[in-house]
């Protein structure tokens, strides 16, 4: 029966390679795109051009990839654990809760070190997502779209609370920076937290099989001896960390966690161990592509990557809604 | 040996199981039968620790399910629930492979691969091993789930209506396969069956539940009487022997 498996193995090996090549092309594009005329090879030379690359272009490119990859991974985890294809940190109130947590640190403990602020923000994101899960566990399983709708309303309420508090304290500009992802401000020394976000995404890989089993549903997972609760907590922690790191450094990018996992699932399925690397690469590539489009479309001015991705993402989301057979919900 | 001692279960105020005590010996096939709402699936869910025990005790070979870690129990017993719905887009081969999860926790060995391959062959799934399960028919999906429980390779196998969605070809195949597991591999199999004639033909022992109580527990040929079946299902049923096999004519 071995011969049955040969063709699949060939195509499954092809996917990461093709995606990685595309990503490398985008990286080269990103390094040479900008107001100053720089070649990618300047990276290895001393002088002003090399500095622009090291201080601005390279950090920006890395930040974009790290954000896209980790948000996409957070999306897979959410979708697997909630067993719903339409959830991601931006449709479950996770991003809004992370921002509310950051706002609280600004107001209550303004002098706290960055790490403490991150911890509070992550804890808020975790708690907010746990509340969301408790809310949607009461929804009928036959209506999968109610889950993201509930999440959007829930996130909207939390977002409004943040805006009210921020308005009263003259901190509105922070909210807008946190909730609208864009990379023009990324410089060396200002994005490094995203490596932690990437590390959290990498940690998800070690739980890949556990996530997949949890995605079979509570009963099947119990039957296979999985500690369902522990896996839920691990997954939500990773999602909360990625979300709060992203909110603080570059701002929330909606749709990344929604669109990327759905594309991969459609073609490669839901076996997380196989799909997580693909999801990460595609997430990085698509966000980098959005950033690049945003930099080129009104050159030398910029449109935020989040806006570009929002437009592209809506289109893909509609395609997923209508093109996917109903039974897959 | 499965020991169920004084198990009572309430859903809200209404009692589902009333002081059920049963001993199921090692080896052989035990069929669990009874009318709708008799408490069969609840008893199964309790045995598989999918529902918390409210009172009483259940143990497998003296492993108390309340004291034994879930991961250890998953190597002792495999369970197929009724109407298991898996929404994941996962290939048949990978899905059956996850039956080995309790043994390898994510790091499959060649032994695991062999067991998965054997399960695929036994349940006639090798040809569709690469298909996603959401693209399969209900019967094919049911076979995948049974193959997954088979690949889990536990001493005890609990199957809640495994014949759901199976045509007669695969239904009989599955019962023969269970027979082989019991006779030649020393497995202990408890299976909820709706069609009493499958129980009559393939089970060694029949346990009947009615209104949350044990209404009968005896060897299959002793159980298969017009009196017992009529009493349990509240309808008069004729029992005839064909080639020495007792059959209930419940459909006419």
TrEMBL record, chain B:
One of its GO terms (molecular function) is ATP binding. The keyword Phosphoprotein does not apply. Residues 2-236 form the ABC transporter domain. InterPro entries: AAA+_ATPase, ABC_transporter-like_ATP-bd, ABC_transporter-like_CS, P-loop_NTPase, Siderophore_ABC-ATPase. The keyword Cell membrane applies. Pfam families: ABC_tran (PF00005). SMART domains: AAA. Keywords: ATP-binding, Cell membrane, Ion transport, Iron, Iron transport, Membrane, Nucleotide-binding, Transport. It is found in: Cell membrane. It is a peripheral membrane protein. Belongs to the ABC transporter superfamily. This is ATP-binding cassette domain-containing protein. The lineage of its organism: Bacteria, Pseudomonadati, Pseudomonadota, Alphaproteobacteria, Hyphomicrobiales.
